[in-house]
Automatic annotation (TrEMBL):
Its main location: membrane. Belongs to the glycosyltransferase 92 family. Its EC number is 2.4.1.-. It is an enzyme of class 2 (transferase). One of its GO terms (molecular function) is glycosyltransferase activity. This is Glycosyltransferase family 92 protein. GO terms for cellular component: cytoplasm; membrane. The gene is Galt1_1. Keywords: Glycosyltransferase, Membrane, Transferase, Transmembrane, Transmembrane helix. It comes from the Eukaryota. It is found in: Membrane. It comes from Tyrannus savana (Fork-tailed flycatcher). It is a single-pass membrane protein.
Amino acid sequence: RMLCGRKKSYFAAAAVCIITLTSMVTVSYLRLQRLSHQPKVIQEGSKCRGEIANSTITPLKDNKTFIISPYFDDRESKVTRVIGIVHHEDVKQLYCWFCCQPNGKIYVSNAKIDIHSDRFGFPYGAADIICLEPENCDPTHVSIHPFAHGNIDQLPRFEIKNRKAEPFSVDFTVCISAMFGNYNNVLQFIQSLEMYKILGAQKVVIYKNNCSHLMEKVLKFYIEEGTVEIIPWPINSHLKVSSKWHFMQDGTHIGYYGQITALNDCIYRNMQRSKFVVLNDADEIILPLKHPNWKTMMSSLQEQNPGTGIFLFENHIFPETISTHMFNISSWNTVPGVNILQHVHREPDRKDVINPRKMIVDPQKVIQTSVHSVLHAYGDSVNVPMDVALIYHCRKPLQRDLPRESLVRDTVLWRYNSSLIMNVNKVLSQTIL
């Protein structure tokens, strides 16, 4: 027994030693890692030169890294988080070059390259390029470079956004990414925009690749009104894009016109100016069933789910192939696109098929987002029950062979019909008709 007791105490002591040693090694490793990422002065007495980049998508000289925009992020430590697109294998190392005025010191930080997990097999993916900032400096611009040495004058400089915390200027911003394929669904687009406004959106940000001439007219109206902000999105000038979301071995570089990168940029772009960000497509509307608008709905949801920053809404297809004779407005018949008021039959749920979701998020709680969920966040996510709200998604059917009587008649959209018709008529009269 004594021998057994001694053996046990030896094992316990050995276990404590191993745990202590492992902890010390881990702490030392993390400290070394942090030290290796600390900004180092490589030049003094310089002026911040270098051309300021004005494009939404800027390729670096390696043509494997594309910079969208840097954002100041002090939620954990003082870092510059650069939203970008990188090749998942070929880009091994990047550095952030900060120029600090008035002393003219140039600091270089070893960047952490965090490629988002939802790459769906494509060689290029959305990435966060994260650098610790110099302690005694609040840099206004940053350059990104594959090397820790060189001439900063030769590097494009990017303005670091979100440097100053400001009170929210709007409650709800809708992010739409990306508009492509010579988009011409004009009537449905106007109806969606007017529904967003009725429900409480003050801003709609559109990452625009291309659209029809008629659609340009409509966008011009909304820009002048102050509702729409256009972010040019010429991604196909830099990469071979796919209109599919998953890789098909077809030589394309990135899926769905770089949608995930645009969504992440939109969240950070609106982090300091919008209380909530709505992530959905132009043919989708998050419709509240128990509340008149998004503001009252979100107040209620936040009250019921304290600490939650991500609210996910279930998608339901209202096929554009099944229509009703109601709201056949003759002046709308000359406008290209779908009249959503005529499509109030939704596809029934399928066994063993989970409906995808779209989101309303508190942008300050999001670190990385995908399309149907948030990848990293502070706080919880909650699935909003269908009796509280659903996504009205008017598009081609998914269940093509269903007879009309198998569809569910759902006229929740008609609650808004009088305001919607009046608002759509006003836009059409000032743009197209």
